[in-house]
Amino acid sequence: MTNASIEKSVGNTVVVIGAGVAGCCAAIQAARSGAKCILVEKNGISGGTLSVGGVSCPGLFFAWGGRQVIGGIGWELVSETLKICNAAVPDFTKFNMKNFWHFQVPVNPVVFTALCDRKFQEAGVELLYHTMLAGAKRKNGRWQITLCGKDGLHKLEANMLIDCTGDANAVRQAGFALSIPEECQPGTYSVRCSGYDPERVDYEALQKAYLTAEANGEIFPADLGWGSGFSSLFLERHGENANHINGINGGDSAGKTRMEIAGRASLLRAYRFLKRNPGFEHLEMRYTGIECGVRESRTIIGEESVSAEDYRSGKVWPETVAQAFYPMDLHDAERGIVKIDLPEGVVGTVPRGALIPKGSSCLLAAGRIIACDRMANAALRIQAVCMATGQAAGALAALSAERGCEPGALSYELLRKELSDNHVIFPESPTITQGENRNGEIQIHHD
């Protein structure tokens, strides 16, 4: 996209800030729904946590008994990635909450992000990688947006603005209220360790060495696991999604800088400690992503908000736009994880109002920043749910822009039909379960 085309962006335009999995689905849906969509991403690759964060196992798409609850563009991207890789699909019919992570879907991030690029091009999304939002304000009924690219500042106008930054950066720059926790969930700096056999590690001897190193300030509990005390988690997972970077809110550039530095310092401590112990002489440590992953920073104050009780009770909102299925999975510096399961048969939902910043005009939010309390956010922050809320925001923005109305005033029946036509699954949708042939194809069975 040229500078000239940026300056002249007018008409039925939707701008999406952030190309994590929420932004990917928002942009593709907005374009498929007829809008001119511009997708702005600070990195040179889409995917967010899935790619640059090194956590490439989105879920959960299927719930109790193998019933699919999240479909649409998110599942389209995941299932097509699996097909390209000739990869196996988990047997979702055997789902159990105790081992819920076994039913997340590992994907190849290289294939996934390349597929996203292709989907953007096919839908007509205009991409701006290596670009960040520098300002957003309303003037004469439109968004006046300033972007910062490699060659300076550029301005454009848009009907609708969607914040998919993960940190509510656009909503904050637009001047709307946010909820910021006093203490955030820890981040994680994911790597891939090799050169040792976790089944042959003498954990008793390693723990003794660890206690000495900890007393000397050479290693911290969060360097090798979640919570306090010695943990084998880092070694068992080969370093993938296995440490905690505590006490930092990465919602702005200063905080994220501190988190990146603290994350790499943690990795260096872990590497030095392990390397000098028997069995780790050939230890290698490689990045799986290029950033420290953030679980929590900010959420919007929305027209509606999902509470932990709403989520755990399976409340079906009158204007549901997405389903959500994951335990409330709150990471904690001392306790490791505080996990609250959903009762048997329960699936959560997200209302339209949770995507609309309170008092805003033509502004939407998707991904982990939607309006909810802290425990609900511990489930709604997950990648599959981010995909679902992103797609909902994309359709809502495009249809509202076309009709010249506020996102909260758009006919819900019209929005629901658009999402259903694009394979979004609602609580009342025909039951979809995994085919018995286990080849990854999804068969539809009507109740």
UniProtKB/TrEMBL annotation:
InterPro entries: FAD/NAD-bd_sf (IPR036188), HdrA-like (IPR039650). It holds the Pfam family FAD_oxidored. PANTHER family: COB--COM HETERODISULFIDE REDUCTASE IRON-SULFUR SUBUNIT A, FERREDOXIN:COB-COM HETERODISULFIDE REDUCTASE SUBUNIT A. This is FAD-dependent oxidoreductase. The keyword Lipid biosynthesis does not apply. Keywords: 4Fe-4S, Iron, Iron-sulfur, Metal-binding, Oxidoreductase. One of its GO terms (molecular function) is metal ion binding. Gene3D superfamilies: FAD/NAD(P)-binding domain. SUPFAM superfamilies: FAD/NAD(P)-binding domain (SSF51905). It comes from Victivallis vadensis. Transmembrane segments: none annotated.
